[in-house]
Design a protein that fits this description.
about 260 residues; alpha+beta; three-stranded antiparallel β-sheet
Length: about 260
């Protein structure tokens, strides 16, 4: 529901040799975009970046003093205060497969919040960032762990601010410090991962994810446990009744959640 019209790929790759104990699934860019859109709408694609996320040796601080060239006069409003960055994806993330690589473009709202002490906070600005870059996907326990490998801020616009904002200066600063931003995003926002559709009683191991013919090919070995016979019996009985296998599996998944 409410998913933008991302291109749908209609041709499937050759699966090649699949071990009898494995299940092979084709992951398209459309599937990843729909999945990312769902997580975005649920508020999952977001997090808070603080000074604790910046290595001491980098000699960079998230403080009103350090950001005073960007937000003119902010250090007068909040003298020597630490800053928190509350970031969240607000626009649909556009993922595409290019030369066996995953590229992304995303709109991110970034709230700048001053720490006032005793747990009190004061938001003083919101900037909308347009970012583009590359992603890597790691699959463990049927969960996708995306990791940003490169990122460029292509545009910065002011949504609101208590001071004048040098948006171009912030874009330069963000791109110079993109390595730190990538590290913080991977650790604070993406490290928890995003679960693939599954159902109770069945776990997966030995996940293998690779590009093949313009798609991502995922091979996993399922472990059914106590659910194995029930799952197989339901599929066999429904297949005998003339119901399409794809519809059966969809039904089983829905009933098991």
């Amino acid at each position: 529901k409410d998913i933008p019209n991302f291109p749908i790929q209609t041709t499937l790759p050759t699966l090649g040799n699949v071990d009898p104990n494995e299940v092979a699934a084709v992951i398209t860019a459309h599937f990843l975009n729909a999945m990312a859109c769902g997580f975005m709408k649920s508020g999952t694609l977001g997090g808070v970046i603080t000074n604790a996320d910046i290595p001491v040796q980098q000699n960079i601080e998230l403080t009103t003093k350090a950001f005073s060239p960007i937000f003119q006069g902010i250090n007068s409003l909040y003298p020597d205060s630490d800053i928190q960055l509350h970031c969240s994806a607000k626009d649909p993330i556009d993922l595409s497969f290019v030369n066996d690589n995953i590229q992304f473009a995303a709109g991110v709202d970034c709230d700048f919040v001053a720490e006032l002490g005793q747990g009190k906070l004061s938001q003083f600005a919101t900037l909308k960032l347009q970012a583009a870059g590359d992603l890597q996907l790691i699959v463990k326990n049927f969960t996708i762990y995306p990791q940003v490998s490169s990122m460029t801020i292509t545009n910065v616009t002011k949504v609101n601010s208590k001071t004048e904002v040098d948006t171009e200066g912030f874009k330069v600063l963000a791109n110079v410090g993109s390595g730190l931003a990538i590290e913080a995003i991977n650790r604070r926002i993406l490290a928890k991962g995003f679960a693939l559709p599954a159902w109770d009683g069945i776990t997966f191991k030995k996940a293998d994810l690779k590009f093949q013919d313009g798609f991502l090919l995922l091979k996993v070995e399922p472990q059914f446990g106590s659910a194995k016979m029930e799952f197989l019996n339901r599929i066999i009985l429904k297949t005998i009744s003339g119901i399409k296998p794809s519809k059966i599996i969809e039904e089983v998944c829905l009933q098991s959640t």
